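If you are new to this repository, start here. Below is one unmodified record pulled from the training split, so you can see the exact layout before writing a loader.
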Amino acid sequence: MLAPAFYALDDARTPMLVSLVSIAVNYALNWTFVRRLGFGHVGLALSTSAVALGNFGLLYVVLRRRIGSLGGRLPGALARIAVATAVMAAAAGGLDVLVAAHLPPAGALAYALRLAVAMPVAAGCFWATCRALGVAVPLPRRLRR
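And here is the target side for that same chain:
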């Protein structure tokens, strides 16, 4: 997300170097989480998320050093988004436990139903919590009507 800011500063080298480092770290984390720790596909998702956050953090630090303050609102916004994420996870997890109690214990249909119920509730909960906390979350035009 921050790479275009570097391009606007006529610096394509920094995001490229950070991306190369990210690729190496992603490979190492994938191998560690999947092969050494046995996390399987969850390890792939965890390492990809960690590398994306690290990439953003590194670009953010470099950009701040280069141009100074970016408005000072990012830490507060990130904290509010983290709270909204925690509320969303709690709501979706609690709802999943309730729905799972009324379905057969395993099977693709049971998982699909649990997902079909939890995902819209999670999205709605995240949106509502963000709105309540003052985080601007735009809605698609179709949903605004």
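Two things worth knowing about this chain: The first helix runs from residue 3 to 8. The helical segments are 3-8, 13-36, 41-67, 74-101, 108-133, 141-144.
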